[in-house]
Specification:
219 residues, alpha+beta, 8-stranded mixed sheet, two-stranded antiparallel ribbon, globular
């Protein structure tokens, strides 16, 4: 998911909204969290999702208006989504500090992942939204996760891989989001949204740009 933001020397620049000095990094955010067995378990789901998004995995799809419908492996995609939310919740890196789950939900996720159990389609669901502009997918951006309440349910929004991933952080279902959860029959709806319509994201980018008038350039 980081590939699009790397330069030819495998580097990218991070910016803080508060204007603290930009930093050059060689790899994505990393933190030792898991044993080798669990790393390998999650790695299988990551590999599958990466291949779907790169087009290596030949995934049937159709587009109607602003909705793209994919036919996917329910378990692998759902478990990947759940693993992202759980890892962000237990990570100590400040990038994920806004992702805070109730202990019972965090533990439920841990047990489901350990059992490779994607659970029901409405439990810990995730809505996928493709961010686009006038030229196509917006790929070169990863943003700190933020929270939002949808239908009174607490959700967390991640932006990476040209998608906004909106995770339901509680064991309830926002009615307006059920359509966009991956279904047990393998149907996955991806909503397409112009990045200018994602207010929280454009506000964050505008604030970051204003506080970084002389951005660091890679040479």
């Amino acid at each position: 998911m980081y590939e699009a933001i790397y330069d030819a020397k495998h580097r990218f620049v991070t910016f803080r909204r508060d204007g603290d000095r930009p930093q050059v990094k060689q790899k994505g955010l990393r933190e030792p969290l898991l044993c080798d067995d669990c790393e390998g378990r999650i790695g299988q789901w990551e590999k599958y999702v990466a291949e779907v998004w790169r087009g290596v995995e030949h995934t049937p799809f159709k587009r109607e208006g602003n909705v793209v419908t994919l036919t996917v492996d329910y378990a692998r995609l759902k478990l990947f989504q759940m693993s992202v939310l759980w890892r962000a919740a237990i990570a100590s890196d400040s990038f994920f500090e806004k992702v805070v789950l109730q202990r019972k939900d965090e533990e439920s996720l841990r047990k489901l992942l350990l059992a490779s159990d994607p659970s029901s389609q409405n439990r810990f669901g995730c809505m996928m939204t493709a961010l686009v502009d006038g030229t196509g997918p917006v790929e070169k951006i990863i943003v700190q996760p933020t929270y939002v309440h949808i239908d009174t349910c607490l959700c967390y929004r991640f932006v990476f891989g040209s998608l906004m991933w909106t995770h339901v952080a509680v064991d309830r279902v926002p009615p307006s989001m059920k359509f966009a959860f991956v279904q047990k029959d393998g149907t996955a709806h991806v909503l397409m949204k112009n990045i200018r319509e994602a207010g929280f994201l454009t506000d964050a980018l505008a604030e970051t740009a204003a506080n970084n008038p002389n951005p660091l350039k890679l040479r």
